[in-house]
Write a structure and sequence with these properties.
Layout lengths: L11 H11 L4 H36 L6 E5 L10 H7 L4 E15 L8 E7 L6 E2 L10 E4 L1 H7 L6 E4 L4 E7 L1 E2 L9 E5 L11 E6 L5 H11 L9 E4 L1 H43 L1 H9 L4 H35 L5 H18 L1 H8 L3 H5 L3
Parallel strand pairs: 3-9, 5-7
Antiparallel strand pairs: 1-10, 1-11, 2-3, 2-6, 2-10, 4-8, 5-9, 6-7
Helix pairs in contact: 1-8, 2-6, 2-8, 2-9, 6-9, 6-10, 8-9, 8-10
Length: about 375
């Protein structure tokens, strides 16, 4: 297949093949170019990448179940929180789950007259993922679940029975175990309520957001959505300090990354430019022959830039692999895929842009002067 198109100009594949061949001749500038890109990429991973991996772990700790929780409390039981609030709040975009709870009531095993007393609470809404119960999806109004320890206290070894008090009755249907942030429920019997029976007051409403960064914004949306007869009597508790800390960490991380990456990109571009000037000087006679045989200036520029880009790709790839291993060993994690790809693209662009001045110089070299025999 001809290297030229019907119009007489070289096909793009010709430039790529020529650039690949020139990676090996001369070899030293190619090795130096690859090493510069490799070293700069590794330096970015060793500084910004390492910091991002460490700070990401810190963000993961900040973005904990406790940090994402909004607690709305009606301490007097007079705010009149409607059960309709659960449906409305759960439909908000940034809400992960919502769960309501009534006041604590002392209950005992109905079939044991002198049985031990435990606490029971009416609960409202679907059980959140942090409450593990095999029967949660099938519970109806008046049915209840309890932790293993509580069932033992009640004398219900086979998870069957009824708990009762003057104001509350619940038929035990199974067990449950609550994870953070609702571990305090592991000492209670949870009696499912549809909100229609008397005494079904929601005293506490828990709302978990998907990300701690949206905590304050979601809190405002929750309070605007919540249906209550006297909302001024409600108290809202959340770890807003964690949300602000999360934002501060992200801002600091972004600022540090910009400064470090910009400095290394500029330094790499300057060093690569110097290397390419040396390559151009070494290939002066080849460039002169190309120009003398009718090669255009744009063809010369394209060959040099493609060569620089290929060197950049090799160096960036090796740097990303080595940098990922380094951050994994030192920080116990690796930067995100987007960060790695972004660094690789920027390093290749630095190699190309740094090679523009020597490529332009090569294109405007006088072939007659280069090829003149003394």
């Amino acid at each position: 297949m001809s290297a030229k198109s019907s119009s007489g100009h070289p096909q793009p594949s010709y430039f790529v093949r020529d650039a690949l061949l020139r990676l090996r001749r001369p070899l030293v500038p190619t090795i130096v170019s690859i090493f510069i890109v490799f070293a700069a990429t590794l330096a970015i991973f060793a500084t910004t990448g390492l910091a991002m991996a460490s700070q990401q772990r810190a963000l993961d700790n900040i973005n904990s179940p406790e940090g994402r929780l909004i607690t709305i409390t009606d301490s007097q039981g007079s705010a009149g929180i409607s059960t309709e609030s659960l449906r409305l709040i759960s439909s908000l975009e940034d809400v992960e789950w919502v769960f309501g709870m009534g006041p604590a009531t002392d209950v005992h095993n109905l079939n044991v007259s002198d049985g031990e007393i435990v606490q029971a609470r009416r609960v409202f809404g679907d059980f959140p993922p942090v409450i593990d119960s095999p029967v949660a999806m099938n519970l109806k109004d008046g049915q209840a679940v309890a932790p293993v320890e509580v069932l033992r206290k009640l004398g219900m070894a086979d998870d069957v029975g009824t708990v009762s008090s003057r104001t509350l009755t619940g038929d035990i249907a199974g067990q449950f175990h609550a994870e953070s942030p609702l571990t305090a429920l592991n000492k209670n019997v949870l009696v499912v309520s549809d909100g229609k029976s008397s005494g079904s007051n929601i005293m506490t409403l828990w709302v978990s957001v998907k990300d701690v960064r949206s905590l304050e914004m979601t809190s405002k949306a929750v309070m605007e959505t919540l249906v209550s007869t006297q909302p001024e009597k409600l108290r809202v508790t959340m770890t807003s300090e964690l949300a602000r800390l999360s934002q501060d960490v992200q801002n600091e991380m972004a600022s540090t990354a910009r400064q470090t990456v910009t400095g290394l990109l500029l330094a790499s571009a300057l060093l690569l430019s110097a290397v390419q000037f040396g390559r151009v000087s070494g290939l002066a006679k080849d460039i002169g022959r190309t120009r003398a045989l009718g090669g255009s200036r744009s063809a010369v520029v394209a060959q040099i830039l493609i060569n620089a880009g290929l060197s950049g790709v090799l160096g960036a790839f090796l740097g990303i692999v080595a940098g990922s291993i380094l951050t994994l060993m030192l920080a116990g994690g690796i930067p995100s895929f987007g960060f790695s790809v972004g660094v690789g693209i920027l390093m290749v662009l630095a190699a190309i842009f740094g090679s523009i001045p020597p490529a332009v110089r090569a294109a405007y070299m006088d072939p007659v002067k280069i090829l003149r025999v003394p």
